[in-house]
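Thread title: Can someone regenerate the structure for this chain?

I was given the following input by a collaborator and told the matching structure tokens would be attached. They weren't. Posting the sequence so someone can regenerate them.
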Amino acid sequence: MKRLIVPLFPILGGVSLLIVVSCNSNRSTASSGKAQIWEREMGAVAKTPWNPESAEKDLNLKVDLIPDGKYGRRLHREMTPRYITIHSTQNYTGDAFAHAKALKKGALRGGVCGYLCWHFTVQGDTVIQHLPTNERGEHADFDGPGNRYSIGIEMCEHKGNNQLATMERTAELAALLMYRNQIPIENVRPHYDWPREGYKPANKNCPHFLLENGKPGTTWRWFVGRVQRHYQRILFYEEAAKQQQQKKSEEDRRSRLVQRFWQSIVELVGLS
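Best answer:
Regenerated them for you:
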């Protein structure tokens, strides 16, 4: 697909600027120490176990899907996700709710199916889901593996949005998606990793604030490290739950043995 990506019509709240969605960026964000600064400001990832069953509530996840059979979902293309692709919107007026409106109205044209679409948009205080994770989106590389096999996550950049909270919520969401879809950490990718045929440069500077000079480097590795630490929290919970179940099973076994022992005593006394 080599068509220009242009909006059909403007949507509320300056969403007309969504022409730049899916990370249309030419500027670099070079700062060798920003990962260290962000780590200090955000604090270390807690080592407390994280229950994946309560994760959607913790993330404040809202499901607001593109209508089935319309726009980005008109082709019903099933997908078994192998990757998670991280984007930044580069839209400084549209929040996650504005992006959801645009996708539901087919305001963004492009991609193989004719409409841009991705799975989640994240801002500082919420996550909105636009596509089921078993359906293909149009957010990365046209007909390449980034679209055919990856879950797309867009990070908001609108005025007033908390960037650090957005990155942390995105890291948590990526960790949960890894767990639910058995995706390894090395398959959490920036949009940059999926080259676009016919474009120069083929590899997009996206998500621009997590890259150095338009390429993955220290900051991207820091972000993926936070994703992995949140994923470990889920594994900690699983291990703790497993140990708790084993402990309960052992207690039940001992209780049954004691009951059988006393039943044997009662029967012996009764016989005598």
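The chain has a mean pLDDT of 87.
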